[in-house]
Amino acid sequence: MDTFTLRRGRVPLLISLPHDSSFIPPAITARMRPSAHRSPDTDWHVGRLYEPLAQVLDASVLRPLASRYVVDLNRPADGHALYPGQRETGLVPLIGFDGEPLYTVAEPVDAAEVQQRIDDYWRPYHQALADELARLHAAHGRVVLWEGHSIRSEVPMLFEGRLPDFNLGTAAGASCDAALQASLEACLAAQTCFSVAVNGRFKGGYITRHYGAPASGVQAVQLELAQRHYMDEQTFAYDEAKAPAVQQLIEKLLRICLA
Q1: Which of 35, 37, 46, 222 is the most buried (most CB within 10 A)?
Q2: How are the residues of the chain apportioned to helix, strand and coil, as percentages rounded to the nearest 5?
Q3: Distance between CA atoms of 174 and 44, rounded to whole angstroms?
Q4: What is the pLDDT confidence band of residue 10, given thresholds at 50, 70 and 90?
């Protein structure tokens, strides 16, 4: 069963988009509330933002074929919390970002099904990610893993107020070299179109934290985008007029990773 797509590039850059898909298998949607069927918490259109840039740069791109509602690829397989003490949606989410239940029954997913989803979706994605990092590292002696994410500008369950537009996460500096982080920060500080946060509410999820090993030549960076600058957050429609400005800044950041 194919559960991801991988475009292999030639430069030492892998773009991972673990929340890119909104597809939920029918056997799962049959037990879900109608409001969950469209997977509203998808990182909408990040593939559309990144794929053209990856082609120009000849970077690798890894994308899943199933929604984060099936299993969250940016969570550890043992289910431990990424942000202890804060409310989260978990490895196999039972609630959405609005805090409402996704399923029609109180205990819809037993331990056996959780394990099956890990085996069917989580492990293949992470094996592909690890293999591609190893391939690029072997070819170049270094590699940058770029985690591309997006989210609604306002999600009261997760953070107060409005989220900054570009949210850079490096696990508080642990997942990449200080020099790379400084260069990325300088690029973001040099522009005036978007607000910026570095290691704020979004410091990097499991993938950034787990794979980032700068001492070994593997650097990992997460970018969480506020969706309002490239799409309509209510209808999920892509905004052809706004998106190019977002893409242009992302391209500058990616080029820094290759410098």
Answers
A1: 222
A2: 35, 15, 50
A3: 28
A4: very high
